[in-house]
Amino acid sequence: MKLSSFIKFAAFGVKTVLLRKNDPILGTVIVTDKCNLKCKHCSVNNITAVVHPYEQIRSEMETLYTMGIKILFFCGGETFLWKDGDKTIRDLVIEAKEMGFLIVNVVTNGTFPIDLPEADLILLSLDGDRERHNEIRGNTYDTIMHNIENATADNICLYMAINQINRNTVSHVCTVARDTKNIRAVSFNFHTPYPDTKELALTQEEKAKCCNVISEMMKQGAPVFNLKSAFPYLINNSFPTPCYQCVVIENGKVSTCGRCIDIPGLCDECGYFFVAEYTLIFKGNLKVIFEMFRTYLKYI
Questions:
Q1: CA pseudo-torsion sign 269, 273, 275, 280
Q2: Which of 7, 35, 44, 51 is deepest in the core (most CB within 10 A)?
């Protein structure tokens, strides 16, 4: 992370904590909900299967920038399916950088060739070892690993949603992140139980076991892009929600925190690690704040 960006993030954090402000800093643009996969844990794919046009996406980027967003994510659906004429997701990343966003990340399922060195991080879904990943996402594990091996930059961060199917494969994903070329880090979430996927949710005891595994793998050199100091709050779902510092824009609609905010009761069962981390940071939790700076300086 550039020193200038670090200073801006630090200033935002100090202002937010001391003045108890709720201004957003992280924004996500949903470029499409169209996806080439039908993953067992996903409730937001192919609802409309609309690929939003470039001018709309550009306008939504400008909206977020005007709101003060510094960290931008492009998300789907599957982001690499996005195209408008000769414009691709790479053009959006480049334009976001030119617009002034300090960090620009892209979320993908990894089934398409990964040629996106302009992104700060590519959050790529790997949901366990070959057997469990393929059970969740179809026969894609080998394709994904091939695409990682042939990626044009080392800006990949694995992204695992831990659920009842893959909860015993956390150490495998940590090992892959540590030992595979082009992978910079790994980030975890617990499954957030949308109404049609409640059976995949973990118990409090299972969450604790997973966090213990992650902590042990961190000791063994796994490059985990999560904050261990937030684990107790994630296990107990005792962090404040929603996260006012994060917003999502989809087809012109801006939602605080995420698309799931309108589902009654779901915030109380949130499994998103970044939500816990950001809400604790901006509530002034010093332990989480110090760990955040150390982690972000290392991996971004």
A1: positive
A2: 35
- Asked if 192 contacts 165 with a C-beta cutoff of 8 angstroms, the reply is no
Take residue 143 and report the two structure tokens written for it.
């394709």
Which pair of tokens denotes residue 196? 């049609």
> pLDDT tens for residues 209-225?
999 999 999 999 999 99
Q: Which of left, alpha, beta for 252 (phi over 0: left; psi -120 to 50: alpha)?
A: left
pLDDT in tens, 7-26: 676 677 767 766 677 889 99
Q: Would you call 54 helix, strand, or coil by DSSP? A: helix
Q: How far apart are CA 78 and CA 31, in angstroms?
A: 9
pTM, two decimals, is: 0.93
- Between CA 289 and CA 64 the distance in angstroms is 24
Domains of the chain are 3-9+24-299 (3.20.20.70)
